[in-house]
Write a structure and sequence with these properties.
Blueprint lengths: L3 H10 L7 E5 L5 H11 L2 E5 L18 H6 L2 E2 L12 H17 L3 E5 L3 H9 L9 H14 L1 H11 L1 H5 L6 H14 L18 E7 L2 H18 L1 H10 L14 H8 L5 H24 L4 E6 L7 H14 L3
Parallel strand pairs: 1-4, 1-5, 2-3, 2-4, 5-6
């Protein structure tokens, strides 16, 4: 029997002659503003590829565009889960395929925009065949993490599967847990995206934004976190906790949120919290860039970080691609 993902993908593959564009890049490179500009010039609709923007009520710490912006430039797959919910790559693929098909039925072109690279890989290449979850084993891993901490569990993963560990944030408990679970269940490293697939992928026309000066990018990251603080990140986290969102759930382990939780619990001071959050974001940007550089078929657009990337150049590029498809 076909899974819902396989069924959705089969219908989408029938339309693969139509392009699906992907706008990638590290955090703080201006992807959102560029995507909005493209919708102004071309028959494009946006699909978010961001594992943090799926959560309702987590707006400031995720740098989610405000409601007015989203009303003018709608993004599919934003605000579709509660903070206590999990959201897997398989969930994303199913939802993204449905959004792509809906956009195509309206006669428009899908543009995937975001920085969650594993989601892009899963959608483009298909998901590897993995063993089913084992609740007892998963609980044992969680208990070990409660005793030793997720950073230590990440170190354990590094010793067993260095390549996989290098692509996972040391505080991403969901992916660390799943990777360790797969290794224990199979006795092998986590299968690569090129391993036996449960589904085929969707070809993407990949574009990537980059800032040529690393120091400028780091400054942009620091400035953005300062803006999050000024906009009320502390109050947002306090509100989430007061509403019963567990401090140890996946969503609250996201960068910015976990550091703010530590500050509110008195385990760190404000300065250390801010420095830890910006350092974690810089590390994320480094991992994102490393991953992107390894991808084939990516068209790069680079700025100095001080001035906006020329929207007209990218609009012309996309327009030429659409013309080549007879659109």
């Amino acid at each position: 029997m076909e899974s819902s993902l396989e069924s959705a993908l089969k219908g989408s593959l029938e339309n693969n002659a139509q392009p699906v564009f992907a706008l990638m890049g590290t955090t703080a490179t201006g992807k959102t503003d560029l995507a909005a500009a493209l919708t102004e010039a071309l028959p494009i609709e946006l699909v978010s590829v961001d594992s943090s923007l799926v959560y309702r009520g987590m707006d400031i710490g995720t740098a989610k565009p405000d409601s007015a912006f989203l009303l003018k430039y709608p993004h599919a797959l934003v605000d579709i889960r509660n903070p206590i919910d999990t959201y897997s790559a398989a969930d994303f693929c199913k939802d993204a395929i449905q959004a792509i098909d809906q956009i195509r039925r309206r006669g428009n072109i899908p543009l995937l925009v975001g920085g969650t690279n594993f989601y892009f890989s899963a959608l483009e290449n298909g998901l590897p065949e993995l063993p089913a979850a084992d609740p007892a084993l998963r609980q044992r891993i969680v208990e070990q993490a409660e005793k030793h901490g997720w950073v230590e569990m990440h170190k354990r993963l590094s010793s067993l599967d260095p390549k996989r560990a290098s692509s996972i944030d040391p505080n991403d408990m969901q992916r660390i847990q799943r990777a360790l679970e797969i290794i224990e269940l199979t006795g092998n490293k986590v299968p690569s995206i090129k391993s036996k697939q449960t589904s085929r992928g969707i070809p993407l026309k990949k574009m990537a934004l980059a800032v040529s000066d690393r120091h400028v990018l780091h400054q942009r990251i620091s400035t953005r976190f300062e803006q999050m603080i000024a906009q009320g990140l502390q109050q947002e986290v306090e509100s989430l906790v007061s509403k019963g969102v567990p401090e140890d759930c996946v969503a609250m382990k996201m960068i910015g949120y976990r550091q703010m939780v530590e500050f509110l619990n008195g385990t760190t001071d404000f300065t250390a919290m801010s420095e830890a959050a910006t350092a974690a974001t810089r590390q994320l940007a480094k991992r994102q860039l490393t991953w992107l550089r390894r991808r084939r078929g990516v068209t790069w657009f680079v700025s100095d970080g001080l001035n906006s990337i020329n929207n007209g150049v990218i609009t012309e590029y996309v327009s030429e691609k659409l013309t080549s498809f007879g659109i």
